[in-house]
Specification:
single chain, 21 helices, globular, binds iron/sulfur cluster, binds flavin-adenine dinucleotide, five-stranded parallel beta sheet
């Protein structure tokens, strides 16, 4: 064996990364099940199940194809590679560039040689040169460049449909009396059952653990959900856990799907006339815009970015995040229950409910980040750090997003059907029935008014404080709410 090709659990694609051009005769393929990773945190079981079972299936598929594969269980990744080095002295280690600072450092110190990470559509160097030329890192500007560079939904220099952005059409609340299509279920096989038994759990049928399953999920989305994706992408509903979202993030993140094939499938469906432009554009924006932007920003902003806490938020993680029985807030309870059930909720519950709550309660950003990392099936360092620290809780002082995504109950009430069955009233900011989001939103603005008033995108919201005749009462209620949340009684 001449080369050892190390395949981390997020590079599970035959045609990309170190496996591109692999030779069955002279290459040894290495996957390492790291005990440090598995036991390093109290991970959501569905998440561990998904990552391990996908890797074991992938190793088996490579063996079936005729490759020499070693699937090792070791103390940590480097310890696994050491075993190979002992057995094959002089073998060279190759991997695609890793997706986190930590692994990049440890593998590089071990002597692994990196090839380009092509699991994204934008080379890191290209993103860094874009970001270095910007005054503010507006995603919209990056996205328009991506549309042109990658020639996605373009007619020459003109975006198809004549507009770059259909956000205005894409903010509908959940429809009433609506039949959501059933969810695609993924049946379990022998490898799945073996992994679930080792983890002492019963896996749901939510997540595929093979490329065939991931491709089936993509096809199911394109055929059953894509048409209505755009208009309802911001909606939240009690009667559907995924609405018209694609539910493919775990697969694009672990390599079972490549973003290029997702874009090809989406564009093919659009060109066949099966989906309106607002849905096609809304979806393409997520894949070639947001996803690439977040990965680029992770590498652009540097390793220390994760430690930002510019709003000085030091409240410990609230008990409701680990136990939904510790809250009466219908929206939060239902969303945390969904996270417990499947390790996933879509973008708006993550941003406008969970992160918003962490933001306006002044929860410590690193504690909240750790919770999100542990609980979500699609969480990895590159994607969670900018999404939480920059977008979710504005802990970077506006380096990434020019204003915090803080909102009161009115937003949640408009975009969901949670409020009708809630003990709280989204319109009230004071009194026992006041919606905690509404009270804490104003309290948050008041606490940070001096710094926010200098931000022209926030000044209108901050000036709204002057119209509140009950500010003292509100501040008193905010203290009651915060202490009730800490006790798990609100
Ligand atoms: C606080 C917070 C934390 C998040 N953490 C993660 C995470 O750990 N892993 C993750 O993959 N996504 C994360 N996201 C982004 C987004 O919520 C998920 O990608 C999305 O909900 C996954 O569901 P879906 O596949 O149905 O997505 P869809 O709504 O169908 O969108 C399609 C795809 O677009 C991509 N995408 C859209 N927005 C983003 C984004 N902001 N960052 C990266 N990719 C994006 C994803 O690959 C997603 O699969 C986070 C967002 C927020 C606000
Ligand atoms: S009233 Fe407030 S707490 Fe209750 S569901 Fe609505 S937004 Fe959530």
């Amino acid at each position: 064996m001449k080369r050892a090709l190390y395949i981390p659990f997020d590079h599970l694609h035959r045609g990309y990364g170190a496996l591109k051009g692999a030779d069955k005769k002279s290459d040894l393929i290495i996957l390492v099940e790291s005990q440090a990773m598995i036991n390093g945190a109290d991970w959501h079981k569905e998440r561990l199940f998904f990552l391990i079972s996908s890797a074991r299936h992938f190793a088996q598929e490579l063996r079936d194809e005729g490759f020499h594969v070693r699937y090792l269980t070791a103390k940590n990744t480097v310890a696994g590679l050491e075993e190979i080095k002992k057995e094959f002295p002089g073998i060279s280690f190759i991997a695609a560039e890793q997706s986190s600072y930590r692994l990049s450092r440890s593998l590089s110190a071990f002597g692994v040689e990196f090839v380009e990470n092509d699991f994204f559509l934008t080379p890191r160097s290209l993103f860094i040169s874009w970001a270095s030329s910007q005054k503010s890192f507006l995603m919209e500007n990056f996205y328009r460049k991506q549309r042109v560079r990658l020639n996605v939904l373009m007619e020459g220099d003109i975006p198809i449909g004549g507009q770059w952005n259909y956000d205005k059409d894409n903010r509908l609340p959940p429809p009433k009396n609506y039949q959501w299509p059933p969810y695609l279920e993924h049946q379990r096989d022998e490898i799945d059952r073996e992994v679930a038994a080792e983890l002492k759990m019963e896996a749901t049928t939510t997540w595929a653990t093979t490329r065939v399953g991931a491709l089936a999920q993509l096809k199911y989305f394109i055929e059953n959900h894509f048409e209505k994706f755009g208009p309802y992408e911001d909606a939240m509903a009690l009667d559907s856990w995924s609405l018209h979202h694609s539910v493919i993030s775990p697969y694009i993140n672990n390599g079972l799907l490549h973003p290029a094939e997702v874009i090809d499938a989406a564009c093919a469906s659009f060109y066949k006339g099966k989906v309106p432009i607002e849905s096609a554009e809304g979806f393409v924006r997520q894949i070639i815009g947001w996803r690439e932007y977040i990965n680029g920003m992770y590498w652009f902003l540097g390793e220390d970015y994760r430690n930002n806490n510019q709003l000085g938020a030091d409240r410990p993680l609230l008990p409701l995040f680990t136990d939904p029985a510790k809250t009466q807030m219908n929206c939060v309870k239902s969303i945390v229950e969904d996270v417990k059930a499947r390790s996933w909720v879509h973008h708006i519950p993550r941003l406008m409910v969970l992160s918003n709550l962490a933001l306006i309660t002044g929860t410590n950003p690193q504690e909240f980040l750790d919770w999100m990392r542990r609980e979500f099936i699609d969480a990895t360092d590159w994607v969670m750090v900018p999404n939480v620290i920059g977008m979710g809780v504005h802990a970077d002082g506006g380096q990434m997003m020019s204003k915090p995504y803080a909102a009161g109950g009115a937003y949640i009430s408009r975009m969901s059907n949670y409020c009708k069955g809630c003990v709280y009233n989204p319109k009230l900011r004071v009194g026992d029935n006041a919606c905690p989001f509404t009270t804490l939103y104003w309290d948050f603005l008041d606490r940070h008014k001096e710094s926010f008033v200098k931000n022209h995108r926030m000044s209108q919201q901050v000036n709204g404080l002057k119209r509140l005749s009950d500010l003292d009462e509100l501040k008193h209620r905010a203290q009651e709410v915060l202490s009730g949340l800490e006790k798990g009684e609100i």
